[in-house]
Amino acid sequence: MKFTRADFPDGFLFGAATAAYQIEGHSFGGAGPTHWDTFAKGPGNVVRAEDGAIACDHYHRYGEDLDLLRDAGMDAYRFSTSWARVMPDGRTVNPAGLDFYDRLVDAMLERGLKPFQTLYHWELPSALADKGGWMNRDTAEYFGDFTDVITDRIGDRVTSIATINEPWCVAYLSHFLGHHAPGLRDIRAAARAMHHITLAHGIGLSRLRAKGMENCGIVLNFAHTEPADDSAGAARAATRQDAINNRWFIEAITKGTYPAEALEGFGPHMPAGWQDDMALISQPMDFLGVNYYTREMVTTDQGAPWPQITGSAGPGDKTQMGWEIYPDGLREVLVRMARDYVGDLPIYVTENGMAWDDTVENGAVYDPVRTAFVSDHFMAAKQAIAEGANVQGFFYWSLLDNYEWAFGYEKRFGMVHVDFDTLKRTPKASYHALKSAISR
Ligand code: FCB
To answer: Which domains does the chain have, with CATH numbers?
Structure first.
């Protein structure tokens, strides 16, 4: 790595991130069915129709996994609490689910790891999907009740709480592009989900404040967006894409507005009276989580429905996902967030990482591309700090190879390799490199 802990401000947190459905094993401990379980059973939705039934079996092996974080010298762990585990039908409490997160948080504290919780990382209980999921306003209210239940149990011990992970994926990728559960391609469904997931953030934050919780925020994903060429069509596509992907949620929660370039398409399909929710949605929060992976080049496709965008990866080297490696985009988004939206508010890089087709050879995994990737992205964050962004921590995605949603178990993002037959964990070379860089 080109950096050490000393390159970052005192108290800067080095960590790794995971999410419940991607690692725990949702067939264990009384978790209820989620829309991902059923989406995975639909034709062509998920590679090899894989689901999160076993995943990394973190439900039983969490001690070993938290040892890996501690042994790497990490300060913090970003994890999520599954709604379907805590409330299998979305409404009724499963005591075993609460007990699991209770044990998990204690196990983090025993190892000196700061728990960074995310409330919703996509495992919507099927019973709520049956009622329309995020198209239904009630889901946002029910999310508030889930927030209360889990916070009453572990809120006394977590360092920070994010309401929602990547609302763009929850709403647009899942209801307009159809790539994630529930797999819809419907502008009315998407417009409603775009608002109700934002409302869920507002309701969740109110419930947390009512309990006196501090360090509350949200995790948003950003893609560095550029016009593919000098044409007017490319410029228009870039403006629209930026409005939908990058501006919709941050402007809602910091300014109480949605961008006009996105309302152009969504406006007629929004739930009635959405404007009345914007004050609740834009109440002050304590931090912003930024997930950043890549750059996208876009242009206009006249033959496509609004927003008429077609995109492709940039020209640089690609990861196993086909995503361009573009560290400067991380610097740019961090500086932009500070400058245009959150000022001095703490920002965390809550996800950044890459997939590679890693294999174990003689008991080790050699992943030099990942080591360089991590090094360059940490340096980009350091540069953003120098340019004024109050970045206070960085979580690599992901601790473990895991269930990469529609890609099943094929894409390996982990710093620790997982053999999905034996569930054996093997720290990769990048894990050892990060460990040396951040050792005290
Ligand atoms: C993000 C998700 C995370 C993981 C990474 C690769 O969009 O938050 O669960 O899938 O991408």
So the answer is: 5-437 (3.20.20.80)
